[in-house]
Specification:
By secondary structure, this protein is α+β, with helices and mostly antiparallel strands. The chain is built from 2 helices and 5 strands; from the N terminus they run ββααβββ. It has helices at residues 28-33, 53-65; strands at 13-17, 23-26, 69-75, 78-89, 92-103. Strands 2-1-5-4-3 form a 5-stranded antiparallel sheet. β1 and β2 form a beta hairpin. The relative contact order is 0.18.
Length: 113
């Protein structure tokens, strides 16, 4: 079995909640990304408290429908792709994972058959 801490230093922000929406873990990039909101001090807080009313509704929908939400954003000239998805343990909903990473100006796209 590999070391479960491999994701702590990848260059993508990873934030994890439990089934009740409490932030239970984040990697180094997420702590830096959310530094103004508290960084690692967000662990133990309710995810909904960190979002606007509109975003809270989307989060509630994700937890109800247990489907992924994937989109791109741009802030201060930096493009990112956001991948929010439920995760499961023994087939039961266990929480949400958000992975956010920066996109280069040009992204290659390949169609493979």
């Amino acid at each position: 079995m590999s070391n479960a801490s491999w994701w702590k230093e990848i260059p993508a922000a990873v934030t994890v909640t439990n089934a009740e929406g409490i932030i239970i873990d984040m990697n180094q990039k997420a702590a830096v990304t959310f530094k103004k909101s508290g960084g690692e001090a967000l662990i133990g807080r309710q995810l909904l408290d960190c979002h606007s009313v509109q975003s809270q509704e989307k989060i509630r929908q994700l937890t109800q429908d247990t489907q992924a939400n994937i989109y791109t954003i741009e802030k201060k000239g930096v493009k990112k792709i956001i991948y929010q998805t439920p995760y499961f343990e023994n087939g039961n909903y266990a929480g949400l994972v958000e992975i956010s990473f920066e996109l280069p100006e040009e992204v290659s796209h390949f169609i493979r058959e």
